[in-house]
Protein 1
Amino acid sequence: KQEVTQIPAALSVPEGENLVLNCSFTDSAIYNLQWFRQDPGKGLTSLLLIQSSQREQTSGRLNASLDKSSGRSTLYIAASQPGDSATYLCAVPSGGYQKVTFGTGTKLQVIP
Amino acid sequence: DAMVIQNPRYQVTQFGKPVTLSCSQTLNHNVMYWYQQKSSQAPKLLFHYYDKDFNNEADTPDNFQSRRPNTSFCFLDIRSPGLGDAAMYLCATSTFGKGGSGQPQHFGDGTRLSIL
């Protein structure tokens, strides 16, 4: 059974800092990994999807990397802004190619 | 814009009174998912449809049912809501082909269900 862990569970940083969120998974036989953002009381917004053949994906100030062999992914946020404050979740395929397992999430607060 | 729309955004029902949540999509995706998310927890998959094929999770209570009358719509029925069913319910879609590597899941804004 796929298990996904995110560290840290919560993070508070001053505006402008670069930061890294971590995601680890137990079953490395995945074909992609997705990072999401969730604002309070809202649904999930897809940030980045990394296919297993890729090592990283970039979108604006976000960069996600994937190391299948070690069962890890990182989400790098450059020059953090207060608007980045949200919970960030990673998700990996599990139990069949149509389902995903979500990580426990990292709640990020960027202080102005 | 193509999107996933959930109605209503907030739903209040009485203990034991059946309730239906709806989800529609304009993405023409063949897979639709229903998740339950409780406060500070990760979304938990209840079931999903691949086209018309219904796939239930082993630990989804019988109290939860789903219908997908066509590609665009999917409904979540809770037959006799209990206090423990108060949560955010999220609908998501994705597209999958045989042998494909999968595409991003797209989520609606969710329906927050309260039980009185």
Note: The longest strand of chain B covers residues 87-94.
Protein 2
Amino acid sequence: GAGVSQSPRYKVAKRGQDVALRCDPISGHVSLFWYQQALGQGPEFLTYFQNEAQLDKSGLPSDRFFAERPEGSVSTLKIQRTQQEDSAVYLCASSPRGQNTGELFFGEGSRLTVL
Amino acid sequence: GDSVTQMEGPVTLSEEAFLTINCTYTATGYPSLFWYVQYPGEGLQLLLKATKADDKGSNKGFEATYRKETTSFHLEKGSVQVSDSAVYFCALSSGGYQKVTFGTGTKLQVIP
């Protein structure tokens, strides 16, 4: 389909492992957001890209979290030395415009479980 | 900073009942307001939006009115269906690139 695609859908990691989560946004979408959704909570903002530029990373919880979008399309969220508190669903969303209207198109998320 | 507060769930209603899910917000400036919905097994999707005071957003029988004086954006539907069972998130966007801030979500279960 033409929607936002995220992989893997499910990831189980042992504490201390590194993980990488991929987001393939809708083709041509300028804006890309990463959110973290803990169980029973709303999505919490992590970071924002406009094309390849990371314009806001204020929501990244620690320096173990790193995101990139080198060619302005696919994005990867990397978590180093995972901790149990990193267990959550990681959502990617894209929007067609740089001046986002708040209308985001979400993927189905990557559920990370850290044991 | 910006924040959204919505009523806690779960909310359980019988089919054809009237639905209200309360939402209030705190924001600087003039945010746009949204309701997103997450059906079981699916990703979040936009349900409706309003971009300025007194605007009414509507979709699929749902409505919400942007009330600046009470900083509210309550979601309503006159007659719910079983297929409306989902988690509903109130949200706002503001700032230069319109970062979206979400509430904690309200789970709605509609029983036949």
Note: The mean pLDDT of chain A is 93.
